[in-house]
Design goal:
Shape: elongated
Strand content: under 5%
Order of helices and strands: HHHHHHHHH
Helix content: 55-70%
Radius of gyration: 18 Å
């Protein structure tokens, strides 16, 4: 059983759950294998190190989140409505996670950035790429809004970086205070950052959607 794709899946799932709950540094390979229910040999068959496993967890999480962000930020709706939808889905996903385990999980990427940015260069570099990709996705929407005369910013990429930063910061506060209410100001903050001149209508909402665009913690 130890050298099957099922074993790899179990290791990834266990590692992600443990990293979300306790962080990366405190975990050992033996603990991960115990949680996954696989022998230690299986771990080293699939991953050469704990760092390699962390990178695999990050890559898998981003693949899912990128799909969620792309879906939220594209479509026929007005650009600012799509951006607002990203915030709504972020809040809904964190709330679903809180209801499932009792605590707000926050953002896997943000949590790892705070813990490992000065310790593991490979993880640090990958997280930089992911946050830059998030900025790219938001910047495309801000560009559209600027062309429509709906925002007052001139440097749309820096504005998008500020939007992603405030999203990440509010998610961190939600985790710190264990309250998804900390995410409620996201849209108002975004309006101020972008100098919104034309307000979009109500967002589409995410009722019945358990996945989070800010991590599928129930993931950020």
């Amino acid at each position: 059983m130890g050298r099957t794709s099922d074993a790899r899946r179990k290791i990834l799932d266990a590692a992600r759950s443990l990293i979300e709950g306790r962080g990366y540094a405190a975990l050992g390979v033996a603990e991960i294998c115990k949680a996954a229910g696989v022998p230690k040999g299986s771990f080293y068959y699939f991953f050469e190190s704990k760092e390699a496993l962390a990178l695999a967890v990050v890559d898998e999480h981003w693949a899912a989140q990128k799909g969620d962000w792309t879906r939220a930020l594209t479509g026929d709706a007005e650009p600012l409505r799509r951006l607002r939808r990203l915030f709504e889905e972020t809040e809904a996903g964190q709330l679903a996670g809180q209801r499932g385990c009792g605590t707000v999980a926050g953002c896997l990427f943000g949590n790892l950035a705070l813990e490992l940015s000065n310790q593991t260069e490979a993880v640090r570099g990958r997280l930089q790429e992911i946050f830059d990709a998030q900025v790219d996705l938001v910047a495309a929407v801000v560009d559209e809004a600027r062309e429509r005369g709906e925002v007052g910013v001139t440097d749309t990429r820096e504005a998008a970086r500020a939007v992603v930063a405030q999203l990440e910061g509010q998610v961190m506060f939600a985790k710190l205070y264990n309250s998804t209410g900390r995410l409620s100001p996201l849209w108002d903050n975004c309006r101020a950052l972008l100098g919104v001149t034309a307000e979009p209508g109500p967002g589409t909402g995410t009722q019945g959607r358990p996945a989070s665009v800010e991590g599928r913690a129930a993931s950020a």
